[in-house]
Amino acid sequence: MPLDHRHFLPGHVWLITHRCREQAFLLRLKRDRRLWRRWLFETKRRFGLRVLNYVATSNHVHLLIQDRGVGEIALAMRLLAGYTTQAFNGRKQRHGAFWEDRYHATAVETGEHLARCLIYIDLNMVRAGVVAHPREWDTGGYREIHNPATRYRIIDANALRHLLNIDDPRTLRQTHHAWIEQALRCVKQERDGIWSSGLAVGSRRFVERFRHDQGIDARYQEIERAGNRFWLRDDTTAAYTVDWQPEKDR
Predict the structure, then answer these.
(1) Residue 47: helix, strand or coil by DSSP?
(2) What is the mean pLDDT of each run of 10 residues along the chain (250 residues)?
(3) What is the pTM of this model?
């Protein structure tokens, strides 16, 4: 299946959401989530993927990625999906799709809106009622931000600091901790759908520019407001398509 290039605009930060087939809990076991993270590291190393945050839940994953404009996101998602499917199906002697065919990509404005998206990702399993704090979840970026690994590091902390206008690693950890603690005091159980269903989230100027850059097909897509955030509604329900054929050939 080809990629829907209408949504792919180089130079943005993207929140990628990919769900298990029919939202089944195929990632409920720790070993499968850790396998996904292992392949995330491999695709990051191979394609130079600039990962800012991530979480693998029991039935979907989120990746926050800064695009370098060389097609690395599409390549990485194809291989990441293919590797995890082959490993899971091989171990379970299972046949059939593991992931939904399409993953959703939302452009996120840097600065304040990026910080909110970072928190949204970290609190996924808190909102689900599985853990009380993101540090308790085994497969998420919170632990890595606060305790960077010496090997197999996934998050590009330097890129994250630059996009958040934070000077040094210690300040990043302190600021991130403060954001999370504040959010935990008023965490909502319902999902904030604009992060995983909108096409772009940020200031009105950012969202309007994004809509303009998409061309004539996006002219009539609605811009909506949620507090001091604006987001572009995805009226087409289109998303990126994962091209499975090379992985089947492999």
Answers:
(1) helix
(2) 46 94 93 94 94 97 93 92 91 88 93 96 95 96 92 94 95 97 83 84 95 79 90 65 38
(3) 0.88
